[in-house]
Amino acid sequence: MSNCAYTQGFPLDCSRDKGGISVVYIAPLTAKGNLQIVSGSVANTGSFLISGSLQQFYTINLRKETGEATEDYQIDDTNNSAFYAQTVSFPLYRGDINKTNEIKLYANQSSMIIVKDFVGPSGSYTLYGSDTGLDLSGGFKSGKAAKDGSVYSLTFKGSEVYPRVFIPGATMAALLLPA
Fold first, then answer.
1. Where are the beta strands (DSSP E) in 21-163?
2. Is residue 68 one of the residues assigned to a domain?
3. What are the residues whose beta carbons fall under 8 Å from the beta carbon of 55, sequence distance 6 or more?
4. How many CB atoms lie within 10 A of CB 15?
5. What's the N-to-C CA distance of the chain in angstroms?
6. Which domain holds residue 94?
7. Do the strands 124-128 and 165-167 form a parallel or antiparallel pair, or are they unpaired?
8. Residues in a beta bridge with 60
9. What is the pLDDT of residues 120-176, one digit of tens each?
10. Domain for residue 2, yes or no?
């Protein structure tokens, strides 16, 4: 057994900030350019390039308490391997041709997804799918009753070498500038 020393404990967090996801930002995995992961934070985003043009993350605003992001550490003792199982799920309401066409694009390639949590006054940003990307599964449902509405249920899943990556606010601001 290896000797991996622990480095810290954690006091009880006394804040009562609400949790949950408020915004999802999405880009194809091919747009990651020269992204470098250093100690769990994005160190240098460089340029996000697709076909020679600057690529930005696209914003999807969510209704309260509808989206979630999870990360589970998976260990296989037999193969002496480990990875992070990452999942980001959220609904899109009101079925239409534009959403259907965009979801087809999501389904045809792996994605990187940044989620903004409701944590703290300005939120917390974390990147999922930074290495091998997240793949889409899900579907569309139009309900029976008038109150049921219509909704796309999107779930992005992946197995990553790195845990979710924390993104500093200044880096996030640069990623959201118009191309």
1. 21-28, 36-38, 41-44, 49-50, 53-54, 58-61, 68-76, 81-93, 111-117, 124-128, 135-142, 150-160
2. yes
3. 27, 28, 31, 48, 49, 179
4. 6
5. 50
6. 21-175
7. antiparallel
8. 24
9. 556 688 889 988 999 999 888 888 887 778 889 999 999 998 888 888 777 777 666
10. no
38 occurs within a structural domain = yes
Contacts for 100 with CB less than 8 Å, ≥ 6 apart:
140
**CA 101 centroid distance within chain:** 21
Q: Quick one: 88 exposed, middle or buried, by C-beta within 10 A (0-12, 13-18, 19+)?
A: buried
Give me the amino acid identity at 38: V
CA dist 86 and 133 (Å) reads 9
Sequence-ordered list of residues with C-beta below 8 angstroms from that of 122, at least 6 positions apart, any chain: 169
Q: Which helix (H) or strand (E) holds 166?
A: strand 165-167
Residue range 20-68, pLDDT digits in tens = 788 898 988 887 776 666 665 565 554 443 333 445 788 888 888 889 9
Amino acid at 10: F
Residue 33 in any domain: the answer is: yes
